[in-house]
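Record minuted for everyone:
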Amino acid sequence: MKFRTAAVQYRLTDISGFEEFKDQVVHYVRNASEYGVQFLLFPEFMTTQLMSIGDEQGHALPIDKLPDFTDAYVELFVSLAKEYDMYIVGGTHVVEVEGGKRRNRAFLFHPDGRVDVQDKIHLTPTEVSEWNMSPGDGVSVFETAFGTIAMLTCYDIEFPEIVRMARAKGADVIFCPSCTDDRHGFYRVRYCCHARTIENQIYVVATGTVGSLRKVDFMRANYGQAAILAPNDIPFPPAGIIAEGVVNDDMLVVGDLDLTLLEQVRKDGSVMTWRDRRTDLYTDWRPE
């Protein structure tokens, strides 16, 4: 099975209202539709742009006001997924859950109107100390017309165990929305994405924010680049890079994924890392 995917290098700029955010999102989705994209990825924390709308004094909205936009955010992406017959990972959005907890949540919008979610499992120090986030409780996989996928956000991809769980549950593609403010953070995520493709013989589609929110603390600097990555084996590009963007540019990165190639390398590749893991020496997660 083949399908076309794309990742948005989403440029953060200060805005004055939700309509500006909507117009920018619609632009990217329309752009993707012109290339025949069937699965589109937006980056982590893209909706922090809404905090730049500000209050009556011109100060940025605090993080606890961001969940107020949840209904409008969901309505926008549900309508776009339906209109363009496209699966959309709408980056992440900050939500409030039972008990007043705050979560960094990834959303998968299906063309038929269904919505799946995955809360970020591993949190950075800034998310905990400055934004009072709470971690998600587990990893899920999601069935689509183009196979089984998982959504693991930024820091999550740096933990091999959680990606192995997703693979054991059947995921062939990991969509990784991220947000990093400098090259150190960016390359941590990027190198780990490559490692996860090799360890699990899967595809990883990743992207991050670019640009700057001058009003919003901790979002004043962004360093990002989208990439569509494959295992390093003969059927794929030698560097494992199907497509990648220009660092820090506002752009769309497009590439085709072939799930039959994954099955091929899992059975008779140069190496078969998924098959050859030594569960007699180290523990492995198995579905119940």
Observations:
- The first strand starts at residue 2 and ends at 12.
- The mean pLDDT is 96.
